[in-house]
Design a protein that fits this description.
The complex is a heterodimer of chains A (about 200) and B (about 200). Chain A has about 200 residues and is mainly α. Chain A has 9 helices and no strands. Chain A has 2 domains: about 120 residues, no CATH class; about 55 residues, no CATH class. In chain A, helix 3 runs antiparallel to helix 4 and helix 4 runs antiparallel to helix 5. The longest helix of chain A has about 30 residues. The termini of chain A are far apart. Chain B is mainly α and about 200 residues long. Chain B folds into 2 domains: about 130 residues, no CATH class; about 45 residues, no CATH class. Chain B is built from 7 helices and no strands. The radius of gyration of chain B is 19 Å and the shape is globular. Classes of the chains: A mainly alpha (about 200), B mainly alpha (about 200). Chains A and B meet through helix 1, helix 3, helix 4, helix 5 and helix 6 of A and helix 1, helix 2, helix 3, helix 4 and helix 5 of B.
Chain lengths: ~200, ~200
């Protein structure tokens, strides 16, 4: 069947939930660079292969998690929520949140925790020091890249948004003004349609 | 913002007094601190972590932060989640890691689900959409500012500053402009940085 535009009605049996869980466990192991880097694979699995999620729901999950406070990985919870809602109930939606979040979090958490403990215990080893200090330039490059990508997708339309991004960057870089003031100013300018 | 040719550090004195190294008082201190962090992080929490844990609470120095973040970045899982696990685990072992992780996720999860329920009403409102766009632009500036602050750490790197800047600039071009896949950049350029540092550490 082709993906219906708005409403999907699913019957999710235990094998389906298990399939979903197993897939997210697998994605977790591959999620170097964050869960967001596996989102194209989630799209293939949830939207194209199984039709558990509509395209609109997929897009909304990504955008909403980006706009809400908290780590971006919560877009995964929203996907589980929508799959459950498509299966017909709030109970199923909450179950979907549990399945996807526990799936995406558990393997990576175990791997990272174990590796970080080892690294901390052996932090005087030359190899460990070389790794941590040698990665610094790339770490900074990734931060600046993320900023660039965010600004160019948010500010694609208007120079005003670019200006706002640059101005707030300078304010935050040079002052210790609390972040929420800057965020609030950005929200206000946006709501008034000034940028 | 453009790439990072700034070699002059922003706040030279701020990190000098890091000998007095405060630490989280308890598991609930960790949980609450990370909850507050998460609630300030629109569009990602990383920049807020640097601001709060390095500049305000001083649980980490600038160098420790950048080193931990390198590890958090290269491990599977969301960076900020990994960072919370590492910081929590360092002070209180596994319970600390779980407290920090729980703080980071619990309240924001409820919030985002609430937003999902209300989403239909929000989506058509132009003011709300505008406010979200404005906040996204501020977030971009915030993340760039975080990167620029960390450039100060180049001066304490075993590598010459010029090499650091060259690697950073190349990384920016590869990731931001040419959209190279992240694992390649991490392995290639990151590996180069590690090898160069390793050789300098020998002498």
């Amino acid at each position: 069947m082709s993906p219906a535009p708005e409403t999907l009605q699913l019957v999710m049996g235990w094998p389906d939930w298990l399939n979903l869980f197993a897939h997210f466990l697998l994605l977790s192991i591959m999620s170097v660079g964050g869960a967001i880097s596996t989102s194209s694979e989630m799209h293939r699995f949830l939207v194209e292969q199984h039709h558990w999620l509509s395209q609109d729901q997929f897009n909304a999950a990504l955008a909403l998690a980006q706009a809400a406070p908290g780590p971006n990985v919560l877009f995964v919870a929203l996907m589980g929520w929508h799959v459950g809602m498509n299966a017909g109930s709030v109970g199923a939606a909450l179950f979907g949140v549990l399945v996807t979040m526990i799936g995406i979090m558990t393997p990576s958490t175990i791997i990272t925790y174990t590796a970080a403990r080892w690294g901390h215990r052996n932090r005087e080893l030359r190899a460990v020091r070389a790794f941590k200090q040698g990665m610094a330039p790339v770490v900074i490059a990734l931060l600046l890249s993320t900023a660039w990508i965010m600004a160019s997708s948010a500010g694609a339309a208007t120079p005003g948004l670019w200006l706002l991004a640059i101005a707030s960057g300078i304010v935050i870089w040079r002052t210790r003004l609390h972040l929420l003031w800057v965020l609030g100013a950005g929200a206000l300018l946006g709501a008034l349609g000034l940028v | 913002m453009t790439t990072a040719p700034h070699t002059s550090p922003g706040e030279p004195q701020a990190q000098a007094q890091a000998q007095a190294h405060p630490r989280p008082q308890s598991l609930s201190d960790l949980f609450i601190s990370f909850t507050l962090l998460a609630l300030q992080g629109f569009g990602g929490v990383l920049a807020v972590v640097q601001r709060e844990l390095v500049e305000r609470k001083r649980w980490l120095t600038q160098e420790e932060f950048i080193e931990d973040w390198a590890v958090a970045q290269i491990m599977p899982g969301p960076n900020v989640v990994n960072l919370s696990l590492m910081i929590g685990g360092r002070y209180f072992g596994l319970p600390g890691a779980l407290a920090a992780l729980g703080g980071l996720l619990a309240v924001p999860l409820l919030l985002v689900l609430g937003l999902a329920v209300l989403h239909d009403r929000f989506a058509d409102n132009p003011q709300v959409a505008g406010a979200l766009r404005g906040m996204a632009a501020v977030c971009a500036g915030l993340i760039a500012a975080t990167g620029l602050k960390l450039v100060a750490a180049f001066q304490r790197s075993p590598m010459p500053v010029l090499w650091c800047v060259a690697i950073s600039a190349t990384g920016f071009v590869l990731v931001a402009l040419l959209k190279c896949p992240l694992p390649w950049v991490l392995l290639g350029l990151g590996g180069l940085g590690c090898v160069l540092t390793w050789r300098r550490l020998q002498s």
